[in-house]
Write a structure and sequence with these properties.
With 134 residues, the protein is mainly alpha-helical. The chain contains 4 helices and no strands. The radius of gyration is 17 Å and the shape is elongated.
Length: 134
């Protein structure tokens, strides 16, 4: 469990720094767009990090109880994971709406595409480190 926590924290720190660089490069903002985007992004990122913290707690709970996982624990973990995923989708919808109003629909779509790709990579790296429920 400690190894998993350390791995996830390292992954999070590395990805966060890389994510800013990737967004800066791929979004290719004008100076005005840059000033508009980053404050909105920081709000989004803070809300996303809170959801990710909840997800990490579930991952840690699963890792700690893997060998003795009951049906009730498995159901609780799965239900919480689905709830977090729903809230993450709602969060992206909320900020997509804000970004398309503040910048443009194309810019908001570009951000959403990049964000989805990065999130999929992060999720894959985390779940690849977990055993399958037995």
């Amino acid at each position: 469990q400690a190894n998993l926590r350390a791995y996830v924290e390292l992954l999070r720190a590395d990805i966060h720094a890389e994510k800013i660089a990737i967004l800066t490069e791929l979004m290719a903002f004008t100076e005005a767009e840059d000033k508009t985007f980053w404050p909105i992004y920081r709000e989004y990122d803070a809300e996303l990090m809170a959801l990710n913290d909840e997800k990490l707690k579930g991952v840690q709970e699963f890792a700690a109880n893997y060998a003795t996982l009951t049906d009730a624990m498995a159901d609780s973990l799965a239900t919480r994971a689905l709830d977090i995923e729903s809230r993450r989708t709602a969060l992206k919808q909320k900020y997509h709406t804000r970004l398309k109003a503040a910048l443009s629909p194309r810019t908001a779509a570009r951000f959403l595409q990049i964000e989805n790709q990065i999130q999929l990579l992060i999720d894959l790296q985390i779940v690849a480190a977990l055993p399958i429920v037995q």
